[in-house]
Amino acid sequence: MKKTIYLVIAAVAVIVIGFFAVKLLSNKGKSDTELIDFAVTDIEKVDKIIVTDWAANKMELVKKNGLWETPDGTCIQQGNVDLMLDAIKNIQFKGYLPKAAQNEQLKRMASRTLKVEIFTEGDWNKTWYIGNSTADHYGQIMLLDSKADGKSTSPVIMKLKNLSGFIEPRFYADIRKMMCVDILSLRINDIQKVDVNFTEATARSFSVERQKDDFLVKQEGKTLENVDQSMVIRYLSHFRDLNFSSPNYVLNHKQVDSVKTSKPFCILNVLETNGKNNKFKLFIIDSGDEIENEFGTLQQGDAGNFWCELPNKQLVKCQYFHFDNILRGHVYFPMDMSSLMKQ
After folding, report:
1. Are the C-beta atoms of 31 and 156 separated by less than 8 Å?
2. CB-CB contact of 287 with 301 (8 Å)
3. What gap in Å lies between CA 111 and CA 284, rounded to an integer?
4. pLDDT (tens digit, 9 = 90+) per residue, 109-162?
5. What per-residue confidence (pLDDT) applies to 100?
6. What CA–CA distance (Å, rounded) separates 18 from 26?
7. pTM for the complete prediction?
8. Of the given ranges (63-72, 159-168, 277-286, 295-304), which has the lowest mean pLDDT?
9. Phi and psi for 222 in degrees, rounded to 5?
10. Residue 33: pLDDT band by 50, 70, 90 thresholds?
């Protein structure tokens, strides 16, 4: 009788233990999913990424016709987005944080975290909260909020499958780091007219305009004779790859407005054959130094760089090195520069 009772108790115990084991495994599976399922494997479906930093700076990128840009159409370096997408696809679980360290990490993430919102096919899918790196520099402490499982409460350590290192450097909320540096990329057949207008040294002003199969070149509005058409083609070829050197990281909004309202040393207009006009205003960067130009005249300013207001009104820094081929018309055309020569 006692033996039967023991067998019954043992059987009940096995059932109870089995029940709790299944329950525990079920909960564990759900918890693990909530904590570590950061990746979006079908990366082609990702069509919007929003990055917000701890200072409330925000950058939104959207995918249109296979290319990434900002909602207002600003050109974005596709390679930088590819690095983000690579991380979104190849992120994987590295390990759990010790219980004792979780509260401390949550406090840190409450004050300093990088938020990455990921959208697929127009709908929000997942949000990453990226904290600091691990002490060994081989992992990133992160939290996940997902459409499928909700928001996790315990930070975990994540890494990339194909790289040992941080995840955070691939994501930033400063649009300036993502911008295309291209100013113009025009073929010769795309150009109708180029007008280079120097506001002070007016003798340097000239224009190049398409006239059927040839181009007409003028200096200060006067047509130049004996223009070599092959030199015109050489000149116009420099509009194929015209870039700025860097966005504005120096001037605040008030200083930018001050530059824009000052007198530019040159205004460049490039009219395309489709009717689009690209206007650029070029401003000297006052460095406090005196430099000598190619005509032997002394002038104040930075010898290597100038500010340029783009057609979209953005102020960027450019190098004379990149622009000299389109500003120095006298190198290509028989222009009279005698009034500018040093006496």
Report:
1. no
2. yes
3. 41
4. 888 899 999 999 999 999 999 998 888 878 899 999 999 888 988 899 999 997
5. 82
6. 12
7. 0.71
8. 295-304
9. -105, 130
10. very low
Q: Which two tokens stand for residue 99?
A: 């219980």
The CA distance from 218 to 187, in Å, is 21
For 65, the token pair is 């016709």
